[in-house]
Amino acid sequence: MSAETVTATARWEAVLDELETDIQRTHQLLVRPPTVTAQDSPGDDAPAVADLLLAAQWVPPTDLGPLPDALRGRAEAVVNQQRVLTATLNETLVTTRAHLRVADTLRRRNAPQAVYLDTLG
Are the C-beta atoms of residues 32 and 95 closer than 8 Å to each other? Predict the structure, then answer.
């Protein structure tokens, strides 16, 4: 194996490592969502959320070259994991939106209403 091939493989492995880490972090956030304290400040898991936001801004490297054949199976596994995670995120988003609609309806229903109308001042 040439030095160039070893370098290309190492760069691809680093990218796949990064993608796998992002998948694991996202999955962990779905399993154990971030907490919010009574003061609406982030809990101890705020760094995990920040890491996830950075992962969302990921830009694919432009200098990788073709995927080495030895890493094809691993890359396909990453793509499949991303597809499963995307479906799970979509389901979670739909559920969260439904919960927010119910919460908004309850909030409006329990909103205090004016008893008097000040027409003079």
Answer: no
Neighbouring residues of 91: CB distance < 8 A, sequence distance ≥ 6: none
* Residue 65 tokens, joined: 């070259």
CA distance 31 to 107: 27
What per-residue confidence (pLDDT) applies to 62?
Answer: 87
- Number of other CB atoms surrounding residue 57 within 10 Å: 6
pLDDT in tens, 42-57: 555 555 666 666 666 7
Beta bridge partners of 42: 36
Six token digits for residue 18: 């990064």
What's the rounded Cα separation, in Å, for the pair 44 and 80?
Answer: 31
Tell me which residue has tokens 């919460």: 103
Q: Which residue, chain included where needed, has tokens 């309850």?
A: 106
CA–CA gap between residue 48 and residue 68 (Å, rounded): 32
Sites in the chain below the pLDDT cut of 50: none
d(CA 64, CA 27): 27
pTM: 0.69
